[in-house]
Write a structure and sequence with these properties.
Length: 418
């Protein structure tokens, strides 16, 4: 459920016609719905209401400050993967004691920042990282709260680029190495074991891999208990999928019920790190048609948003529904919807049947709230698009469009070239 709906043949975001926003801010732009964000968080959070739990929103999915603030006000914590995300989360008012820090490449500086902030736990992904974290904590005269990310070797049955819990992936530690890491941590005066962590992948559309991962983590916790190692938090990561096209992911309620059942009487606080499922369908990318072009073999719709604005189609062959903002009777055509970037991989859709719009008309690229703006770049020296948040009948530019000056900010021509 989301609040991008057609009324009399025109796309609205909540109470605001999308066309009106386009007139004000120009194209392309990202558009988020506050009501949708709020609803998605509440549905997810309430699904776990019967057990002790903490929802740590995965900041990397959409890290706009306004989005973070909205979720913080609903009670969300944060799953961060960098010092930059820590900075954002704190700026947005997410309490440090609700922040978990994931990622395979944490630096000493990032560890210091997170320790000083007083985060809930570090999800440690290697022995080297654990050693460094202990040294950093020692220098600060403190103890680092940790969970170790266990790689449960479960196939999430999703795109290979977004599987993370297979033996061959770079994430986490296999069960035996993880056990060894817990033993070492137990002996370390600068580490405090607080949890166990795993995250098996993204855009999962079945429940069984989550349940299987949870079962394996439970077994693992029992092995820890035999060695007198106790944990308070079981962090099951994120990964619940959304509808982009014809997927049928389980609703949060079903996902939660299956996990709660599998948890049984295990006395633990369940930590969840949802990203996409909270923000994915709460955002769209609005773009304008520039040209229609026919070659002897193909038809192209050239639009003003490219892979630098929305990378997912080029990067993961991801499907995004594309709809005209104003519905009209039109002949349908099978087209590639492509951007202005000088790359063959620069497309938003391939071989897509669309009611053929004219140059100047607006298109909405749906389900672009997650891994959209955050993956954007300045490739081809294109200023990044603005982000707009709709709230009822109002809309707010929550990140302004970049300008040319911003493109070269920080660049210098050295003296010898003057
Ligand atoms: C990316 C990521 C998430 C969020 O994944 P979604 O599929 O967006 O829910 C959660 N935890 C970790 C460690 C991640 O890397």
């Amino acid at each position: 459920m989301h609040h991008f709906q057609f009324r009399n043949g025109e796309l609205y975001a909540e109470e605001v016609p999308v066309r009106k926003i386009a007139r004000r801010v120009g194209t392309p732009f990202y558009l988020y719905s506050a009501a949708t964000l709020k609803r998605h968080f509440q549905v997810f959070d309430q699904a776990f209401a019967s057990i002790p739990h903490l929802v740590c929103y995965s900041v990397k999915a959409n890290s706009n400050l306004a989005v973070l603030r909205l979720l913080a006000k609903e009670g969300a914590g944060a799953d961060i993967v960098s010092g930059g995300e820590l900075y954002r989360a704190l700026k947005a008012g997410i309490p440090p004691q609700k922040i978990v820090f994931s990622g395979v490449g944490k630096t000493a500086r990032e560890m210091r920042e997170a320790l000083r902030a007083g985060i809930l736990m570090f999800n440690v992904e290697s022995l080297g990282e654990m050693k460094l974290l202990s040294r950093v904590a020692k220098r600060l005269g403190t103890k680092a709260p940790i969970a170790i990310r266990v790689n449960p070797d479960v196939d999430p049955k999703t795109h290979p680029y977004i599987s993370t819990g297979l033996k061959k992936n770079k994430f986490g530690l296999d069960v035996e190495t993880a056990l060894e890491a817990y033993r070492l941590a137990q002996e370390d005066p600068h580490l405090e074991i607080v949890g166990v962590d795993c995250h098996i992948g993204s855009q999962l559309t079945q429940i069984s891999p989550f349940v299987e991962a949870l079962r394996r983590i439970k077994d693992f916790i029992r092995r820890l208990e035999k060695e007198n190692i106790r944990v308070r938090y079981l962090d099951l990561g994120g990964g619940l999928g959304i509808v982009y096209g014809d997927e049928a992911p389980p609703p949060p309620k079903e996902y939660a019920s299956a996990l709660i059942k599998e948890l049984g009487d295990l006395e633990i606080t369940l930590v969840l790190e949802p990203g996409r499922v909270l923000v994915g369908n709460a955002g769209i990318l609005v773009t304008k048609v520039l040209y229609y072009k026919e070659t002897p073999t193909k038809k192209f719709l050239i639009v003003d948003a490219g892979m630098n604005d929305l990378l997912r189609p080029a990067f993961y062959q991801a499907y995004h529904e594309i709809v005209p903002v104003i519905q009209k009777e039109r002949p349908e055509e099978v087209v590639d919807v492509v951007g202005p970037i000088c790359e063959t991989g620069d497309f938003l859709a391939q071989e897509r049947r669309l009611p053929l719009p004219k140059p100047g008309e607006l298109l909405a690229v749906m389900s672009a709230g997650a891994y959209g703006f955050v993956m954007s770049s300045n490739y081809n020296s294109r200023p990044r698009p603005p982000e707009v948040l709709v709230h009822g009948d109002e809309f707010y530019v929550v990140r302004k469009r970049e300008n040319y000056a911003r493109l070269i900010a920080g660049e210098r021509i050295p003296d010898f070239l003057r």
